[in-house]
Design a protein that fits this description.
The chain is of the alpha+beta class and 239 residues long. It contains 7 helices and 7 strands, in the order ααααααββββαβββ. Strands 1, 2, 3, 4, 5, 6 and 7 form a 7-stranded antiparallel beta sheet that branches. A hairpin with a 2-residue loop joins strand 1 and strand 2. Helix 4 crosses helix 6 and helix 5 runs antiparallel to helix 6. The longest helix is centred in the middle third of the chain and has 35 residues. It is elongated. It starts with a helix and ends with a strand.
């Protein structure tokens, strides 16, 4: 019976993790309750082990072998709209005005090149992000700090971050002391972005009063993204 209740709890947690519940816009107490964790103690070791078995390792999607420009071009050429335009161009070249056919094929080439270039840059950025994720990180479990492999981090883990460390998984800031992070791998911005902690819940808002709501790239000030790097200060964050 106890095991069944635990599995039901993990299934409910999975629904929250993958749902549209926007933890960065909630209070710390709401996030902690939803994830079933005490931010001052972290998960207990047994719960962390069970969560890893349920959710699997914390590993970004492997994009190796799919970042080649030619494969991206091939994928773009296989889009239904592109194929439709190619068919129209062929019909015009056979029974219509040849110049109209040339115009259509030039337009197809432009659309495919722009789409392929955008997709290729996005895939390269994600591949770079994967390689930048920390190999080890500090977590709080049973009230004690300890170092674990980054792929052992689970939803609800409380991570401790300091200057120079990479963020091991998407997390919301529970405590912040002069925190700034480099989000360039995601946004291309050259300057570090200041972060702030979630509100405690006493004032009714989810975001700390002194927090900038969003970065220039639209990333919430209370959200830390996997693969970004702490450039100043320190923080405690909930995955």
């Amino acid at each position: 019976m106890e095991e069944r209740r635990h599995l039901e709890h993990l299934s409910d947690l999975q629904g929250r993790v993958h749902g549209e519940w926007r933890p960065w816009a909630r209070t710390l107490s709401e996030v902690a309750d939803s994830l079933g964790v005490d931010p001052s103690r972290g998960l207990d070791r047994l719960d962390a082990r069970n969560r890893r078995q349920h959710f699997g390792p914390n590993v970004p999607v492997d994009l190796s072998g799919r970042v080649g420009l030619w494969s991206v071009l091939g994928a773009e050429l296989g889009e239904p709209m592109v194929l439709l335009l190619v068919a129209v161009g062929v019909l015009y070249s056979l029974w219509g005005d040849p110049w109209d056919a040339v115009t259509i094929f030039v337009a197809i080439g432009g659309v495919v090149c722009v789409g392929a270039a955008t997709e290729w840059r996005a895939k390269r950025a994600l591949a770079a992000l994967r390689s930048s994720v920390a190999s080890n990180t500090t977590v709080l479990r049973d009230g004690c700090e300890g170092v674990v492999a980054a792929d052992a981090v689970v939803p609800g883990d409380v991570v401790v971050l300091r200057h120079g460390q990479a963020v091991p998984a998407d997390a919301v800031v529970a405590l912040s002391h002069g925190l700034a992070v480099d989000e360039g791998a995601l946004t291309g911005e050259s300057l570090s972005v200041r972060k702030a902690a979630l509100g405690s819940g006493g004032g009714g808002g989810g975001v700390a009063d002194d927090a900038p709501l969003l970065s220039l790239a639209g990333i919430p000030a209370t959200l830390l993204c996997a693969g970004t790097t702490v450039t100043a200060g320190r923080a405690v964050a909930v995955v």
